[in-house]
Write a structure and sequence with these properties.
Chain lengths: 353, 288
Amino acid sequence: MSIRRIAVLLKKEWKYGSRGFFFVFAVAAPFILTVFINLVFGSLFSGKPKVGVFDMGHSSIVSSLKEMVSVELKEYESEQSLKKAVERGVRDVGIVFPVNFDSLLERGNSPPLVLYFWGESLLKDRAVAAASVLSRIRDFSGKKAPVNIVSVALGKEKGLSLKDRFIPLVVLLAVFISGFALPSTSLAEEKQKRTLGAVLTTPVTLRDVFAAKGLMGISLSMIMGTAVLFLNTSLSGRFGLILLILFLGSIMASCFGLMLGAFMKDISSVYSALKGLNIFIYGPGIVALFPQIPKWVAKVFPTYYVMNPLMEVSNNGASWKDIRQEFFILLGFLVFFVVLVGLIAGKTRQQET
Amino acid sequence: MSPDAINVDNIEFSYGNVHAVKGITFDVKEKEIFGFLGPNGAGKSTTIKMLTGQIFPKKGKISVLGMDVTKKTGRVQARIGVSFEQTNLYEQMSAVENLKLFADLFGVKKFDADKLLAMVDLHGRNRDHVSTFSKGMKQRLMLARALVNQPEILFLDEPTEGLDPVSADNIRKIILKERERGAAVFLTTHDMMEADKLSDRVAFIHEGKIVALDSPYHLKQKFGKRLIKVETETASGELKETEITMDEPYTADDVRSLFAEEKVITIHSEEASLEDIFIQITGRGLTG
């Protein structure tokens, strides 16, 4: 392998590959999906949080909440009807004001305040609702949050919102569309148009070609993965660790792409194969979308070991210790795939053009 | 005797069960134009692929510029140029970009793409995308690409296929110029006239085997039959064609009697072509 020749080929890939349909698709698809999810499930252009209250003792705080523009308030006749509204997602948050709430506050006590929230409501809406209530209580009592808030999640999904459940799939798409589809289509296209044969009559080896196309996939995959994580506000964890996992994920994606490209004769075959292989690549993301599917199903797919550590570190603030087992499994897969790609690059010369 | 540019010793290659090349042996001298002729499927392209290191022979040895092509593939490829029969250019790039890419891959430092393009009559189209080129223009660009590293051996697969007579003639001049520069040329073509005009020696390949190898002149001497064709007018005014074999003891008498007895309208000699010789040897034509 020659670094100079790989650099020449890589420059060619960036300059001319970026004009291709698949490059544009690989860049645009994760962004479009991000915007789509945000439009459908929240954050961008979403309205005010819907708050429901059951006021057992005619609290003046409820009256002042009605005047606030940051929340959309509705009163309920009973705690039962409030809970039902929250369960169905009619209200994002439901608050039960107990009897004598105001007088208990005045006496300096900390009365309990039960706060129900719909499991699929946005964190932002929950935060806005809670902050609005707390600010009104603070205004009334003149003290800093003199209440104990008990939060109870209602509805079928008590964990992540639907939007949050989509993020793993979007991240997988960002990493693997670029890393997987670009090298495979580029390699197959060069075979179909016979340019690979021309390049291989120069001192360029097939390993040089694989390295250049793999690096192209890895770099774009890294950029897209980071951008999508950033857009989905999930870069809260350890940035270095996130980049390392993204890097390994990008290598895995490129290995898959190169293996596919090596065995396919033309672009149409790659497209057909990509359709069939989608489940193999994006399976863990689909499993994450449906919490009723057991988590072990996702663990069957190699891409799980990219997606899960990435989401754990970026979303849940997991540390190296928390993800090291999955990290080493990912590393094991990578060693296997890289060796396989190296062997294929050596063997394919005999069948080329 | 000049040293060999290419030395091929009993090479074989098969695609699965199909035995494409069945033990062929030949050599190409330095500064020699070597014509490699045969019909489609005879094993020409497979042989070129083996000589240029794209595939390796299953048996036998190939030495190019004194190096084993299977062991020193990269070093051999750095000193050869290949022009293909089928277009394989980067169509989304311009002509200059195509040439510069290959110059960079070969590591050519001082490279003048415009000069090379002018040589193949593509000046004025230097910056145009190759996708807008005609087949003939692409063919010429592929030849230019094969020359970017000033190769010591030039492999040309049907270089004049699809070209107009003027362009084809220009390509032939470039081939001769390359030989003058010192390059050996390995040429495959269907055009027998071209092979006859250009080649110092030709090899006929048929069903994976070389069935004849010599200079065109010697092949014609060995296999060809020289004829005199005479057109005469009979007493009743009808035209009649007579063929007289040359180089026979009775040739002169036959010609003399024709002139004496009949009214000769036209007379001309005819040489056997390489195509005739190929048919004579293999029982089939080259274009089949």
